[in-house]
Amino acid sequence: MSIKSLKIQNIRNLDHVELEPSDAVNLIYGVNGSGKTSLLEAINFLGLARSFRTRKFAYLVTHEQKESLVFAQLQSPGDHSLQPLGVSRDTSGNVNIRYTATNIDISQLASLVPLLVINTDSFQILEGSPSIRRQFIDWGCFHADQSYIKAWRSFKRVLQQRNSLLKCGKIDPQIRGVWDAELVKYAQQITQMRQRYIDQLLPDFLAISQRLMGEIDLSLSFSPGWDQKRALDELLEEQLPRDLKQGYTAAGPQRADMRIKVDGVSASERLSRGQKKLVVSALKLAQGVVYNRFKEDNCIYLIDDLPSELDAKHCQLFCQYLEQMGSQCFITCVEPESLAKYWQEDTALQSFKMQAGQLITSDDQQAKEI
Ligand SMILES: Nc1ncnc2c1ncn2[C@@H]1O[C@H](COP(=O)(O)OP(=O)(O)OP(=O)(O)O)[C@@H](O)[C@H]1O
Ligand SMILES: [Mg+2]
After folding, report:
1. Between 20 and 30 A from 160 (CA), which of 2, 128, 240, 279?
2. What tens digit of pLDDT does each residue of 208-217 get?
3. Ligand nearest to the Cα of 355, by number
């Protein structure tokens, strides 16, 4: 999937911006506060109807405006026709998503526009709470297996029911038995899909990290949220007094996590800032590779301030890998010189200069010469 044209209205400091990006590398540069991250936000809004930075739409819509709108023409691989997609949201909470004259919902949108974001928040995969790592795994499962979203939603519903019964303090054993059986069924489905996804991701993650960082003793392991030597139904029974006391269910996929270690030590504790950026980038690049294998299509990468934290050699390795993947990328940086030199002559490179919320398109050749 690639974005052939974009029309952005009222996203942060972008009141009206239009662009025709390249299918390959798009460099967005400009001084601090010019609107580079806002442009990535607009593409994220196109794919998810929300911001990647804030949960509050009020911060995403341009100050004193009531509605954000992003319109795009999309092209699928092997198809020359363009499909229109429009996503709008207003401050009253109304979301409207139209794809080829049909209304679609947010999960259909997320599946249609597969986005992978690499920004300062990505460090949270290593440094943040397990929920961030579950989001990472769930992104992959959602795209890899159509049945994942249904199993996940059902699990969430049953878990909420069980937890509200626990909060009441007393549960009829028969009713609990029914909920627990449902919970275990969905927990197993989710866990199988998550484990399968990690198994598929792991070899690519290790190969890409080696390419970006050289020989490094990295490991990635998945913990499903309960002791796998124990049956979940038995565990739920055994832990009931504790669950009742706490008012929530302690064991299950809602506690799943992923551990990344270097030399057997937590990567979050061991690695430097630049190395952490390379590890989280390798994770996201591996997700793109696995996605491509499943769907025979590419994800769209949004990479905010690619050069930050990286030295010239690692920056170049990162760019080379991206280029080889053939995905459409939107990459921001402050100085175009910091990235323009890393691309092959035949790469379709398009540069866009942001200036006070306006876009100034510069010739791709010119960018290579900078
Ligand atoms: N809701 C909003 N309405 C209007 N302007 C906003 C809104 N939210 C943020 N801004 C402004 O938009 C401008 C562009 O922000 P953005 O984060 O896109 O800059 P940037 O080019 O990525 O800068 P940097 O190089 O510092 O990362 C900033 O001046 C910011 O204050
Ligand atoms: Mg920025």
Report:
1. 128
2. 999 999 989 9
3. 1
Tokens 């992959």 — which residue?
140
In a domain, 72, yes or no: no
Place of tokens 């769907």: 295
Closest C-alpha to ligand 1, atom 2: 12
CATH of the domain at 270: 1.20.1050.90
What pTM did the predictor assign?
0.96
Residue 311 placed within a domain:
no
* pLDDT, mean of residues 328-336: 96
Instruction: Give me Rg for the CA atoms of the chain.
Output: 22
d(CA 209, CA 88): 38
- Neighbouring residues of 264: CB distance < 8 A, sequence distance ≥ 6: 217, 219
SS3 247: coil
What is d(CA 335, CA 212) in angstroms, rounded to the nearest whole number?
A: 22
Please report where in the chains the tokens 């390419």 appear, as a residue.
211
- What is the whole-number distance in angstroms between the Cα of residue 12 and the centre of ligand 1? 6
Q: Which residues line ligand 1 (CB under 6 A)?
A: 12-13, 30, 32-38, 59, 62-63, 334, 354
Q: What is the pLDDT of residue 340?
A: 86
Which residue range(s) make up the domain with 215? 124-280
Quote the ligand 1 centre to 301 CA distance (angstroms): 20
Q: Which DSSP helix (H) or strand (E) runs through 315?
A: helix 312-325
Residue 363 is predicted with a pLDDT of 53
What CA–CA distance (Å, rounded) separates 129 from 110?
23
Distance, in Å, from the CA atom of 266 to the CA atom of 129, rounded to the nearest integer, reads: 14
- If you ran DSSP here, which 8-state letter would residue 81 be given? S
60 CA closest ligand 1 atom index: 1
Q: Which ligand sits closest to the CA of 57?
A: 1
The domain tally of the chain equals 1
Atom of ligand 1 lying closest to residue 34 CA: 21
